[in-house]
Amino acid sequence: MIGLISYLVFFATVASILAIAVLGLNLQWGNTGLFNGGVVAFFGAGAYGTLILGSPALEGQLGGFELAYPLALTGGMVAAALLAWAVGALTLRLRHDYLAIATFGVAVAFESLMRNAEWLAGGAKGIRGFERPLRAALGDGFLYNLAFLGFVLCLLVAVYLFLERLVGSPFGRLLRAIREDEDAARSLGKRPARVRLVAFVTGSAIMGLAGGLYASFYAFVSPQDILPVLTFQIWAMLIVGGAGNNRGAIMGTVLIWGAWTGSGWALSRFAPIEAQLYTGSIQFVMIGAVIVGMLLWRPQGLFPERLVVSQSGRSN
Amino acid sequence: MPVTTKTRAGLTLGLALGLGALAPAAVAQDCTTKIGAVLPTSVDWGRPIAEVAQFAVDQVNEAGGAAGCKIEMVLRDTQVDPKVGVDAAKALVDLEGVKLLLGAVSSGVSMPILTSVTVPAGVPQFSCCSSSTAFTKLAEEGKTNGLWFRTFATTAVQSAVAAKVARDKGYKTVAVLYKNDDWGQDMARLIAADFAAVGVEVVANVAINDAQPSYRAEVTEALAAQPEALYLALYPVEGTSAVREWISLGGTQNMIVANSLKSDEFRDNVGLQYLGNTLGTDTASPRSDSADAFRTRYVERFGSEPNGPGLANSYDATMIALLAMEAAGPDASGADIAAAVPRVTDPAGTRVSADAAGFAAAKEVLAGGGTVMYDGGTGNVRFDANGDVSAPAVVWSFAEGGIDEVEYLSLDDVNGFIASLR
Amino acid sequence: MQNLVDGILTGSYISLAAIGLTLVMHILRFANFSHAELLSVGAYAALVFDKAFAAVFPIAATKLAPLSLTLALLAAIVVSMAFTGATAILIDRLVFRRVRDKGNELSMVFASFGMALVMRNLIALGFGLHSQLYSRDIAFAVILSRDPLILVKPDQVFVLGAALVLMAALHLVLTRTTFGFALRAVAENPALAQVNGVDLGRMIAATWVIAGMLAAAAGVFYGLSYQLIPIMGRDLVLPVFAATIVGGIGSVYGAVLGGFIVGIASNLALLVLPSGYSPAVPFLLILAVLILRPNGLFGEARA
């Protein structure tokens, strides 16, 4: 029983961290229509930024600042935001598929840089040695994980409320207006390019926050954490949950991450022993089938976007 | 109650030890102990590593199980994705209640498992193949709590022996192709230093990235340096692709390869006729009667030589883990199992072979309060304080039937040569 | 120079695959991430047919010197193209058509992601995770010129030639037949084409067949030059997408050019950057192209 609770706490922590990243993507895609194919670059910038700022010195690589945790985490977000600003300024005038492949390229380049530049981030062996905050007080065990889950949940709720307010605000309406018809928005004197950049940078900073939490939870990050599969996972969570709907984004995360890990658990438990060696491939088939099945069943996601009439519209 | 299994186990033991050995086998049948394994079974080189771990478990069960119970290995795929591997490890520890964990292969997966699952839970982790030097550093800082073990001899041995081969062959210039991961980057750095120390110049040092459709450009770059010989620190899939390209473009067939290419798949797909001047390096079993046990049993079971990245390492990791479990006795905690590892890798202990008979013999000795020295597939494995191993080395070449041994270097030879390089 | 020649030769199979992808992306209006898996399907199907033909007609298993190609494999390519075309239609019927009826563009993209996972791992289950080859013999390169030194492999020249023939055939079909006009009409404006009596369903099926056949050819050509592994689709999907986007979505000629550009770029890249960075290079190139031409070289702005 205690084992089950301990596992669920762990699962919920990772799922909540991923949910924060999915919320960031929802701001970019669901609300603004920006097809970010390089989610993992911004997630990674947050992860690496946090650990470089927060870790003790390691031989031959940048770091050793040992900043206090909130500062390091903020620093990771800033790193993600700066990267997003540079990338956005260059690429945001591209639309859809073109933007997706351009940002995807940024993510591949980011991973290459982290893998090869040892002076910067330790190369392929990554960054280790990060001291998890308050470890001395809480130890390493269940209590720590519980406390960390609480912290992550607080941030998840904060990000959720922030985005809900943002989306309901005039700025949120502006985002949707630009998504639906950019020319019309421009004719009203709005500046779509600037607004899109703001949304892109904000969403990316939220992804960076998720990356920072992820790296500090494992006290480790390496290039293997920032492979393109993460971009795919986060997108699948958003699409299955329902783009444009923050609750859907969170539900999609739990569902997809649950299917991703639960399929492995179920196979290890129920598949015959002769088949155990093949469960890795079977598990991928199951994951693919769940995603395809969900999209066949509810193509708009579990919670489709609710297009509400604005406050002023409703009062009339 | 599976009577046949019992009889077969009894027979094996009887052959190995005489009838007296039947006693421990008889008590072991009623219960099952789960151990966990997180290995990348969806990756080409990962699946055989998992298969050989299961093979080791089967042998232990043939000898009546460990710590009084049959062993069941619960296997999870890591997908080479740290998140997935860590989650799988956590589920094994929390939901299945495993007391020891085998895995992972990639350092980038093993490390977060170690820091966020096994160390906090006090579960010992035995990795076959994680090579990163970061583990040694972590252990030196006292952050592994003595729970980390790996049967992967440090890369220093491989690179030093390769330097010896290059010097003995009289190569003056060498091009290096290395896998662009933590192991390959370590190898490339060590090779450059060790080759320089024996007067061999590395004229090109080319990273080979995973999952690239073609390595034509990388090979062309190495070829342009016109080396006398080629050094390869690659795995079979990209190794095959790169070497076929290299040979077809007229590159030299003087090659030195790391143990990861000691693979039948690589030999067959490149072609033995092009591998006549290829020498490989590997860690080796010591010269003793029991040392061949792993190879012999493996050939019996799979019909081929145990050639492939990490196979012998994975077998040894599993065997040592289960020997330690046996030594720690029933209902031991993870920390007890970790603490029992020196009792089964004691140079002064009774030597036991790497098969069911050896495991049964070890049970006898351990039950009597003695210590054993496990003669594994990778050598007589001995862990230092940081969970690292050193081992004798061998130089080998590809041959029709498998692998021929060219030269054997004892542990003292290896250490002496490494010292001469510094 | 060598890098340039290599780039052109490696570009040929990327181009073939990119043509199919660009057609699908244009006519069905979604980025099909399972397209590269059709290359794997084609390559593995050819492996099976090749073995079968060689077993039935041993004479067909002799090599056509200096190529490492056999008559059996040549026949297998043709059969495999048909097989892969049929597979592509089947997948459309089973999955994509249903998602298309109910969902939007993005649902299609992620359904294709899911299908890619399923297809790749089914191949892995069927054929094993290790690499396989059509022929184990190594075809040696011939020296084309000594100064500067240029080496080419006969197989690669064959691949380039065959790819150009297939492209020319497609060009003729698209520009000289009623069917070609209909297909282009659907691509331009599906609604208008339907009003004019073009059967949309048939055109979509035709698109899949063309895409599947070209993908199969590209897959076999790739396998002939390198090796077959179940994850080859994963390794190839990015260069193929890159080629499509650089060329401009919907432009067949753009895809051809894009394929060669990506091939050349990845080969020239190592002259300026350490090889560790090579995966990033095609994408940096795309970034550069897109900053200059936001719709690709031959693409048109599309709502």
How would you describe this protein?
The complex is a heterotrimer of chains A (316), B (422) and C (303). Chain A has 316 residues and is mainly alpha-helical. Chain A is 73% helix and 0% strand. Chain A has one domain. The C terminus of chain A is likely disordered. By secondary structure, chain B is an alpha/beta fold. Chain B folds into 2 domains: 253 residues, Rossmann fold (3-Layer(aba) Sandwich), CATH 3.40.50; 151 residues, Rossmann fold (3-Layer(aba) Sandwich), CATH 3.40.50. Chain B has 16 helices and 17 strands. In chain B, the strands form 4 sheets. A 7-stranded mixed sheet of chain B has the order 7-6-8-9-10-16-17, with helices on both faces. Chain B has a 5-stranded parallel sheet with strand order 2-1-3-4-5, with helices on both faces. The longest helix of chain B has 18 residues. The N terminus of chain B is likely disordered. By secondary structure, chain C is mainly α. Chain C has a single domain, classed as Orthogonal Bundle (ABC transporter involved in vitamin B12 uptake, BtuC), CATH 1.10.3470. Helices cover 72% and strands 2% of the residues of chain C. Chain C is built from 11 helices and 2 strands; from the N terminus they run ααααββααααααα. In chain C, strand 1 and strand 2 form a beta hairpin. Chains A and B meet through helix 1, helix 12 and helix 13 of A and helix 3, strand 2, helix 4, helix 5 and helix 6 of B.
Helix content of chain A: over 70%
Low-confidence stretches of chain A: 310-316
Order of helices and strands of chain C: HHHHEEHHHHHHH
Largest sheet of chain C: 2 strands, antiparallel
**Class computed from helices, strands and strand pairing of chain C:** mainly alpha
Average pLDDT rating of chain A: 89
What structural class is derived from the secondary structure elements of chain A?
mainly alpha
Alpha plus pi helix count of chain C: 11
| Strands of chain C, total number | 2
Count of distinct strands of chain A: 0
Return the domain count of chain C: 1
Radius of gyration of chain A: 20 Å
Anisotropy-based shape of chain A: globular
Low-pLDDT segments of chain C: none
CATH topology-level name of chain C: ABC transporter involved in vitamin B12 uptake, BtuC
